[in-house]
From TrEMBL:
Sequence intervals crossing the membrane: 338-356, 404-427, 447-473
UniProt KW keywords: Membrane, Transmembrane, Transmembrane helix
Organism the protein comes from: Sporosarcina oncorhynchi
Protein name: Group-specific protein
């Protein structure tokens, strides 16, 4: 591919990566799922536990996430949802397991060693969960190699040519695994029991059929050699994970310098330029710095702590808004009256309990929130969901109005006929056992009154049975349906 922009080399000394894999689970079984996760070596994370600072070892010896920072970074109404004190409370429930294992990723002819620090499993509200995988690359690499690693590792199921040709090498057995098998068979085999599968779709994609593709979201913190200049083209490649082409050559997804400039104006946070930059796109949140590594401990802590939760919350917003648009598209209006009510409840509870435009008390947090909202198109998605809610209310009102009109029409007929006959609908014949033998002598009007009486009694019984049947059915569905409130 010809390019009009220079692809200058950039040496990377250290690379920290966090891969986010969303999936769905049955939140009506949240307590049992939490116990199952704990039994597999994971510990529950809470800001209130006395030894919460010990969880820093899941980030690495050189990274420290301050609990006080997490408490003060978010507004109180957000903090309570992000850091509940127990599984019984509403919110995001995080379970952490320290791994500290070395592996290798082979991409074409190149082999890159990487260190799996730890894994988080986060049970979010309304049946959405996240697998968070923290990785550090174990060698100095060129920027193209770092980005190529991220692009291949994030592909849970490699179906595009640009993502094919990679495998995980497990030492010392030298076993080769795909990214999918590495996650679901080697690291977290128990997840297969938790993951809620869509009956119509196969593979991991079936767990969340409203996600765009089958690749993980990537959060990276990249440290270059000290004082190396960072160009706009390199920033663009980092934000878009432009590593190498299928032929193994450095790659950039634009040949137009003006396009690159305009793109960076929407995705780049350059408050600390030229020594540190942050970028947010729809598939990556990246930080790059050319400062000395010893001076970046605080920035690394923010990236792993406050910035991660800021990202997590907005990524969750995106998934939920996409989910509600997808659920709306699946409605069969003639059959799904209860489904419509459940969707209205889901949208209403999500909007009132979790969807906040202002989440951070810090200026930098607000600026990053704006970048996340723009990158994930949250305002557009939310407007679509708001219109969906109005359509659901309108359809429900029309359905109720139709049912009421039908019932009034029936009652009116019975009332008119009963009034004409003065409520004397040949009931006197029913008093004696032999009364029904007189039906052969009924006149036309007596037949009308008889049919009206029997039909009215039958209709009343039918309405009573249907009403109680719907109540029982709704109770059963409310216990099993995955769209119940958290």
């Amino acid at each position: 591919m010809k390019t009009n922009v220079p692809l200058e080399a950039l040496t990377i000394d250290q690379s920290y990566m966090t891969f986010l894999l969303p999936f769905s689970y049955n939140h009506s079984h949240k307590k049992s799922i939490a116990e199952h996760i704990k039994q597999n070596g994971y510990t529950y994370f809470s800001l209130n536990q006395p030894n919460s600072n010990e969880t820093d070892r899941c980030y690495g010896d050189d990274i420290k996430v301050e609990v006080q920072e997490l408490e003060q970074y978010f507004f109180p109404y957000v903090e309570h949802k992000l850091f509940p004190s127990s599984i019984l409370e509403k919110g995001f429930h995080r379970f952490t397991n320290v791994i500290n294992m070395e592996y290798e990723l082979q991409i074409r002819e190149a082999i890159y060693s990487f260190h799996v620090r730890s894994i988080d499993i986060i049970l979010a509200p309304f049946g959405v969960a996240f697998l968070s995988l923290r990785i550090k690359l174990g060698q100095t690499m060129e920027l193209s190699d770092v980005l190529d690693f991220a692009q291949h590792f994030r592909a849970v199921e490699s179906r595009l040519d640009e993502n094919k040709g990679s495998k995980i090498i497990i030492s010392p057995s030298a076993e080769n695994l795909s990214i999918h098998d590495f996650i679901f068979n080697h690291l977290c085999s128990f997840l297969k029991e938790i993951l809620l599968q869509d009956k119509k779709l196969k593979g991991y994609f079936g767990s969340l059929p409203y996600i765009e593709d089958e690749r993980m979201f990537v959060s990276t913190f990249i440290l270059t050699k000290e004082e190396q200049p960072i160009t706009p083209e390199q920033l663009f490649r980092i934000g878009n994970l432009n590593g190498k082409s299928p032929e193994g050559k450095p790659f950039i997804s634009s040949t137009n310098p003006e396009y690159i400039k305009n793109s960076l104006s929407k995705t780049l946070h350059d408050r600390w330029a030229p020594e540190l930059y942050m970028l947010t796109t729809d598939h990556a949140f990246s930080t790059i710095s050319n400062r000395n590594a010893t001076e970046l401990s605080q920035e690394l802590g923010h990236h792993m702590g406050t910035h991660f939760y800021n990202l997590l919350l907005h990524y969750y917003y995106k998934i939920m808004l996409l989910r509600m648009s997808y659920e709306y598209s699946q409605i069969e209006w003639k059959k799904d009256a209860y489904y419509v009510k459940s969707l209205i409840k889901l949208i209403t509870l999500f909007s009132s309990w979790y969807y906040f435009r202002e989440i951070s008390t810090r200026t930098e947090g607000k600026e990053l929130s704006t970048l996340f909202r723009n990158a994930f198109n949250l305002d557009i998605l939310y407007n679509e969901v708001s219109e969906t809610l109005q359509q659901l209310y309108k359809s429900q009102e029309n359905s109720r109005a139709g049912q009421v009109n039908t019932l009034l029409f029936i009652l009116t007929i019975f009332t008119v006929v009963s009034g004409i006959y003065g409520m004397n609908l040949v009931i006197s014949d029913w008093e004696a056992p032999s009364g029904w033998k007189n039906y052969s002598t009924y006149t036309l009007f007596e037949w009308i009154s008889l049919i009206t009486a029997v039909t009215g009694i039958g209709l009343s019984g039918y309405l009573i049975i249907i009403t109680f049947g719907r109540i029982l059915m709704q109770k059963r569905r409310s216990m099993k349906h995955t769209m119940d409130d958290e």
